[in-house]
Design goal:
- The protein is of the alpha/beta class.
- Helices cover 43% and strands 17% of the residues.
- The strands form 3 sheets. A 6-stranded parallel sheet has the order 2-1-5-6-7-8, with helices on both faces.
- The chain starts with a strand and ends with a helix.
Length: 351
């Protein structure tokens, strides 16, 4: 099976969308599949207003259509709702090419937090985007139920995984007063970092990551240790150096960092919100509306139990689930034949 993934989120961005797509594409050959990507690479880009680190592609519909045709894919998956995703959706609908989508980010809540845009407006736009496809992949059954109440149809479950070899218990590299409470992820208003950084906790608070809120948070909370963006071995070693992973977000759809932290032997402290509710059982962390109590309670959680929970999630299983979803659609839609017909028709017209 040859899969074309259209995504506005791509390297050098460091986020759950990019990491998920990279991880399952690495697993795909062992499962008899090949991934090709249509990304912002090769297009001029512009920074997203209020979040310049995210670059949006300035691509014409024709340029995106050419990439889709050139891929000669069996299945088209649109991963994001940005300019490339919109152009790909337009092409597929105009040519009768079936496609799937995925719901990675709670844009309605994020936009509301930044601009106070009414949630119903954003959900109406996203509902129209995703319902046009043959299926929308979501990370958990809880999220599927929630989206169905918003009018989303044809939801399909696609869970996530973690690299157990990279993220593992190892000697500590942080020389700070203990206990060490760690957050890792994007530093932005929707991540609710103030709920963590404002807590009266013993030991040290450590923040790993970057984003538009970093400067203001560092100025407001000078006692916290802001280490900047870390990836690979440096990130894994930082996880393993802490005592508790604190996840203050109430809006994430999953939270891959939760799996990375638990795989590193870190119990989790979080609000009882989507994401933690789906992946953090009571023997691997503490979920409470009193985040301080959750942080202190997590100190009593076994590091071995936290890792055991993360071992239940693999990228191989995630890739298999993703491909099974596509296979179910492809069995009746034959998108590759339709793309080939379009390509041949264009060649005839050009000649």
């Amino acid at each position: 099976m040859r899969v074309l993934v259209v995504t506005d989120a791509w390297k050098p961005q460091v986020n759950g969308v990019v990491r998920s797509l990279e991880a399952i594409s690495r697993e795909a050959p062992a499962l008899g599949a090949e991934f090709r990507f249509c990304t912002p690479e090769g297009f001029p880009t512009i920074g997203l207003p209020s979040y310049r680190e995210i670059r949006l592609a300035l691509a014409t519909p024709g340029a995106v259509a050419s990439r889709i045709v050139a891929a000669r894919a069996d299945c088209v998956h649109i991963a994001t709702e940005g300019p490339l995703g919109l152009a790909a959706r337009r092409f597929c609908l105009s040519r009768g090419v079936p496609f799937t989508t995925s719901y990675h980010t709670r844009f309605p809540e994020y936009l509301h937090a930044r601009t106070r845009l009414p949630l119903r407006w954003s959900y109406a736009a996203l509902r129209a985007f995703h319902n046009a496809g043959a299926g929308v992949m979501v990370s958990t059954p809880r999220l599927a139920r929630e989206l169905k109440t918003q009018g989303f149809r044809k939801t399909m479950i696609w869970s996530r995984g973690v690299d157990h070899e990279l993220f593992r218990p190892r000697p500590a590299i942080l020389d700070l007063p203990r206990p060490i409470f760690l957050y890792a992820g994007r530093l932005a208003v929707e991540k609710n970092l103030e709920a963590f950084l404002s807590l009266d906790l013993p030991g040290s608070k450590v923040v790993v990551g970057d984003g538009p809120a970093r400067a203001s948070l560092a100025a407001r909370y000078p006692d916290a240790h802001f280490l900047g963006l870390r990836t690979g071995e440096a990130l894994a070693a930082t996880y393993a150096s802490a005592d508790v992973f604190v996840f203050p977000s109430r809006t994430d759809t999953f939270g891959i960092v939760l799996l990375e932290a638990m795989a590193s032997g870190l119990p989790v402290a979080a609000f009882p919100a989507p994401g933690p509710l789906d992946v953090v059982p009571s023997d691997a962390g503490v979920l409470s509306d009193d985040l301080r109590a959750a942080c202190l309670g997590a100190l009593n959680i076994s590091r071995e139990a936290a890792r055991a929970q993360a071992l239940r999630f693999t990228w191989a299983a995630s890739a298999r689930q993703f491909l099974d979803n596509l296979g179910a659609i492809h069995a009746t839609c034959h998108s590759a034949e339709q793309i080939q017909l379009f390509d041949d028709r264009q060649a005839v017209e050009a000649g």
